[in-house]
Amino acid sequence: MRIHITSVFVDDQEKARRFYTEVLGFVKKHDVPVGTDRWLTVVSPEDPDGTELLLEPSGHPAVQPYRTALVQDGIPAASFAVDDVRAEYERLRGLGVRFTQEPLEMGPITSAVLDDTCGNLIQIVHTES
Fold this sequence. Notes:
24% helix, four-stranded mixed beta sheet, 129 residues, 41% strand, alpha/beta
């Protein structure tokens, strides 16, 4: 068994598509109309057949209180692996991305947390082998 798709709830799918592809560097995999919304997934360009991230509409009534609580408590909705957290932090800050946590080393793990502009906190992380 392996993870095929996971999701983050987003306020605006088109804004999320732009942020996750043009800023974070993911690649659009699927974009299928589903009523007024879309089945919109992105993947890592390093693994185009790997795990998909569904940019899921946040219209369900349970989503807003859930996301608000996570953001207020500083809890990321997702975590993405990077090769160099500090370099990625600098690259993304240069693109105007707002971070809620600067790079932080915790033993073999370095992480930082950013605001995805669509209602979520996202962690970037690197683990030393």
